[in-house]
């Protein structure tokens, strides 16, 4: 069995790490380079760096910060935000990224997934899906532009299409749970796990040790991503790994 991964996330805007609830009311957490170095020390398995304002500001991901972060960490680094071409991907891979996460641009032009996978390999292309449950329709709807624009895409069907086009991994954020510390949306990840056969990273809702155990034991996800509980020192990577090992979950 593959070891489960614990992945802190740095949401970056204006060169600073930010955190909000349900994708709004962002507060400043600190310097991305210092925070990344601290997670390296704690033993994080990977790091996700999302330039959350790049798409809405119609600019490219901040390469200089990516270079500084990659110089500090030796774990795999996934970079997303403002990536809309294979050239953008190449620039970030040269700056130190190991994987590229695409969201809004992939929804606008799904062939970008195919082009990236063909040039860099499926393992390099992560399709990020921001989704919220639509009670009226009884399904998960896909959102783009940092959660600001609803689309007509249904999340499970979009996940299947993304994988068919070459996505090697899915980073799926429950907007309903984001920053709430109410636990991961297990129903979402159970549905995704039944629909696709690539690694899934669960994001949104981590609040305590039991939440990590639940998402790994009750859904087929491969990684759990969290921000608030790690950024504010409520939990450390080591504490979560220790707790998971005690519950029989295989971790690195």
UniProtKB/TrEMBL annotation:
Its main location: cytoplasm. The keyword Signal does not apply. It comes from the Bacteria. Coiled coil: none annotated. Pfam families: His_biosynth (PF00977). It catalyses: 5-[(5-phospho-1-deoxy-D-ribulos-1-ylimino)methylamino]-1-(5-phospho-beta-D-ribosyl)imidazole-4-carboxamide + L-glutamine = D-erythro-1-(imidazol-4-yl)glycerol 3-phosphate + 5-amino-1-(5-phospho-beta-D-ribosyl)imidazole-4-carboxamide + L-glutamate + H(+). This is Imidazole glycerol phosphate synthase subunit HisF. It comes from Lactiplantibacillus daoliensis.
């Amino acid at each position: 069995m593959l070891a489960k991964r614990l992945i802190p996330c740095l949401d970056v805007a204006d060169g600073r790490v930010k955190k909000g609830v349900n994708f709004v009311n962002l507060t400043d957490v600190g310097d991305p380079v210092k925070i990344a170095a601290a997670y390296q020390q704690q033993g994080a398995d990977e790091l996700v760096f999302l330039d959350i304002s790049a798409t809405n500001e119609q600019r490219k991901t901040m390469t200089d910060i990516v270079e500084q972060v990659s110089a500090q960490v030796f774990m795999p680094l996934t970079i997303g935000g403002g990536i809309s071409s294979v050239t953008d991907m190449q620039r970030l891979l040269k700056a130190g990224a190991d994987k590229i996460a695409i969201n809004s641009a992939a929804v606008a032009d799904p062939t970008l997934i195919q082009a990236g996978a063909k040039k860099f390999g499926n393992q390099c292309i992560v399709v990020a899906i921001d989704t919220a449950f639509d009670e009226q329709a009884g399904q998960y709807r896909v959102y783009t532009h940092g959660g600001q624009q609803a689309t007509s895409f249904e999340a499970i069907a979009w996940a299947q299409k993304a994988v068919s086009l070459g996505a090697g991994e899915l980073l799926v954020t429950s907007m309903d749970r984001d920053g709430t510390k109410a636990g991961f949306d297990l129903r979402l990840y159970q549905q995704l796990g039944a629909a696709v056969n690539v690694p899934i990273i669960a994001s949104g809702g981590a609040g305590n040790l039991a939440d990590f155990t639940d998402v790994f034991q009750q859904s087929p996800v491969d990684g759990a991503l969290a921000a608030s509980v790690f950024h504010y020192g409520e939990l450390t990577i080591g504490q979560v790994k220790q707790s998971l090992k005690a519950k029989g979950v295989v971790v690195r």
